[in-house]
Design goal:
With 610 residues, this protein is mostly helical. It contains 32 helices and no strands. Among the domains are: 70 residues; 104 residues, Alpha Horseshoe (Serine Threonine Protein Phosphatase 5, Tetratricopeptide repeat), CATH 1.25.40.10.
Length: 610
């Protein structure tokens, strides 16, 4: 394999990235979030003095605080409160910065209130307020952040680009990208020193990409250029990575060419994103060519690059090749990491080879690799798919005993596994545990349980769950309605399904082809062919084109019930729209011709080629 030969010529260290936003350099637990060494908002977290007031030595002749934990910081704070004369706001600000750096945001806010609002007479400066804005943002309390922004003006202080960048990051993290973009457009109105910079745009672009809003990210890129703000490799790599995740690899390569033409050299992150994008599309020859180009440009693949390849190979069922890549890595001194092994383990699970999957899991433990929540969830999912719930639950109990907190995916996987075995009570119990804990169930959790209840004919439970979902703050679309309508039809409660379907306009919902097909199948099964045909006409009038399943379903219903003339008329009409019979329809027509019920001259369609 050409790829293998080239792999043997170079190796370094990198790891797989699967989440959107700023593509970066360190794997963190199941979500696979990375924190770049060029992170846009490392503000107040060990970045440069200009953006980190807690380390601004020029503001006070005394050396900055060097606390390593909250206890040390707390002792220092108590000591400062007792000092006479009282330390300046500068010294308190330095300590608050250290507490924020330790990620004790609530403590920093509490101490800030104590020194400024409880009669101590200390007036915060811009550095102090920036730290508190950042703390509120880190806690996703944007109301608090903006109240501190208002305090700038009340105290006659000038917010700067750092202040506004923190707010933009907070809005983006809170999935309020439109508000963040609006703030960027208004920044210069805040006064001198508030012109958007590369951090501003980079933060907004990362937030847009995280939500899959690639077009908006590219708009921000163009807006940067209009504002004479030169994008850097991180900005381009962020968008390229997001495009590749959405399999828009051609667009990603257009940006790749653009950045090179502007003299912005791509880095390992850029190359790995594009390499992984090609692998995901199965374009192995092009990936090989690109890998060679990467090496010739002096960019050595590292563990993330290799892990990206292992992941794509395993998802494509190429377990042998995936193992070969790992062998090459090891031989070249590049140690596979948690992501590498997780990808291989998931590949075996997808093929149902749980013994080998468990072998990889045990190897990780033996080698001292970090076995995270994602590792356990992969193996639990594999056992659930094989209906080996005892094994799955043993792993679940093991991870909780080790102090790991199962996430929503872990719980949802177990709920689905119990439903497959018909163990509805166990599924409901697992769902109840998730509802009272943290994290909470998401739309996928509800979808899995709703589908499980419907498949196990627990329709009343399904209706109750659906009512609970409608009363929640979760946003969901037509797919969950389709699950319930299908369940109602299967349970022969067609009238209830009709009522739900008729409620769509009042809910602002538009049925899709699956909705119509479910109802047409149910009506045809019950012998209500006129109503089924009327529904077929109705969907076409509303611009929803029937698919092969819809057409074959209604034709089979007519043929099965000897409505032959209507079937022939419908087939001839559908032929003008490209109708193609499936195997079942073609066989029924052939059998009816053999039985003399259809004219042998009637050859309406040919079987769809495989």
């Amino acid at each position: 394999m050409i790829m293998m030969i080239m792999m043997q010529r170079s190796a370094s260290s990198y790891c797989n990235r699967r989440h959107r936003g700023n593509p970066c350099l360190q794997l963190q637990s199941r979500s696979r979030v990375f924190f770049s060494n060029n992170n846009y908002l490392a503000l107040f977290h060990g970045s440069s003095q200009s953006s980190n007031p807690s380390k601004s030595k020029s503001r006070d002749p005394q050396h900055p605080f060097d606390v390593t934990n909250l206890e040390e910081a707390s002792n220092m704070f108590k000591k400062m409160l007792k000092q006479r004369p009282r330390p300046s706001i500068v010294r308190f600000t330095q300590l608050l910065g250290q507490v924020a750096k330790l990620e004790h945001y609530l403590v920093a806010i509490s101490w800030y209130k104590q020194i400024t609002l409880l009669g101590m007479g200390l007036v915060p400066d811009a550095f102090t307020l920036n730290i508190i804005v950042n703390c509120f943002c880190r806690l996703n309390q944007m109301g608090g952040s903006f109240s501190v922004l208002a305090l700038f003006f009340k105290l006659g202080l000038q917010p700067d680009v750092t202040t506004l960048n923190i707010l933009i990051r907070g809005l983006g993290h809170d999935n309020r990208v439109d508000e963040a973009a609006s703030l960027v457009r208004k920044m210069e109105a805040f006064g001198e020193g508030c012109k958007p910079n590369v951090i501003t745009f980079g933060t907004l672009i990362a937030a847009s990409c995280k939500q899959g809003q690639n077009d908006k990210a590219i708009q921000m890129l163009r807006m940067m250029e209009k504002n004479d703000c030169k994008p850097n490799v991180v900005v381009y790599s962020t968008i390229i990575d997001s495009l590749c995740k959405d399999k828009l690899v051609a667009k990603a390569f257009n940006l790749f060419s653009e950045m090179k033409s502007k003299g912005i050299p791509p880095n390992i992150v850029t190359y790995t994103s594009l390499f992984q994008g090609l692998c995901k599309l199965g374009q192995w020859k092009e990936a090989s060519r690109f890998f060679k180009e990467m090496n010739s440009n002096g960019i050595s693949p590292n563990v993330q690059t290799f892990s990206a390849l292992v992941d794509c190979l395993c998802k494509d069922g190429k377990l042998k090749e995936g193992n070969q890549v790992i062998d090459i890595m090891t031989a070249r001194g590049v140690e596979p990491n948690t992501v590498t092994y997780n990808s291989l383990m998931e590949g075996y699970c997808l093929q149902g080879d749980m013994d080998k999957a468990k072998g990889i899991f045990d190897l990780m433990l033996k080698k001292g690799s970090i076995v995270d929540v994602f590792s356990y969830s992969i193996l639990i999912n594999g056992y659930c798919n094989e209906r080996r719930m005892k094994k799955a639950m043993l792993l679940f109990e093991e991870m909780t005993c080790k102090g790991m907190v199962p996430d929503t995916v872990t719980y949802t996987t177990l709920i689905g596994g119990f439903c497959k075995e018909g163990r509805i009570d166990d599924a409901q119990n697992m769902f109840s545990k998730l509802k009272v804990g943290c994290p909470l169930p998401n739309i996928h959790t509800y979808s899995v349980l709703l589908d499980g209840l419907c498949r196990n004919r627990q329709i009343d439970m399904a209706l109750k769950l659906f009512g609970e979902l409608e009363g929640s703050n979760l946003d969901f679309g037509i797919s969950l309605y389709n699950i319930l309508i299908d369940g109602l039809c299967t349970a022969r409660r067609i009238e209830c399904a009709r009522d739900l379907f008729r409620s769509f306009p009042s809910k602002g919902l538009q049925p899709d082809v699956k909705t119509y097909t479910i109802l047409i199948i149910a009506l045809s099964t019950k012998g209500l062919f006129s109503e089924a045909e009327a529904l077929l006409r109705g969907m076409e009038e509303k611009g929803c084109s029937p698919d092969t399943v819809t057409n074959n379903t209604i034709i089979q219903g007519f043929l099965r019930n000897d409505e032959l003339s209507r079937a022939q008329e419908l087939i001839q009409e559908m032929m003008t729209k490209g109708f193609c019979a499936d195997d079942s329809t073609a066989k029924m027509i052939t059998d009816l011709i053999t039985e003399g019920k259809l004219d042998p001259a009637f050859h309406p369609v040919e079987k769809k080629s495989e």
